[in-house]
Specification:
mainly alpha, 7 helices, rod-shaped
Amino acid sequence: MTADRMGAEDVVSLTFLEAWRLRETLDGVTSHRAWLFGIATNVIRNTRRAARRHREAIARLPPSHAVPDPADAVVSRITDAAQAAAALAVLNRLRRADREVLLLHVWSGLSHEEVATACGVPVGTVRSRLSRARARLRKLAAEHLTESAASGRAPASPIAREGNL
């Protein structure tokens, strides 16, 4: 009657629980089997009614909106802080002039001409410093990743530990 093995197991257990509760009425019953099937039928009706009411109650609820897990934000902030510390550690190993050109062009989004104006150097100098800084940055980043993998964590620069980006 349930078309579901687990549901049938629940009905059987509830039937015998109800039969135990009603065992005093068993003395006046002529067919014990019919009495037990009558209890089972009532248990199935009650179970179906409860399931229907539950479905209807759930349907009346407003749609739930997914709430982001705060742990994800914490992990993201920790990862971002570690990456920022690693980037600072590598950036601080560049020459000051190369670091300025790289940060003005990449971080601030200035054109070569705007960086040249800001630094007071020719555009060709900006291009060569930028090329040199990128090449050195690739090399330093590879070294830093090797160091980090060997130690199991990213070594933070003194500036990163102070919290100054």
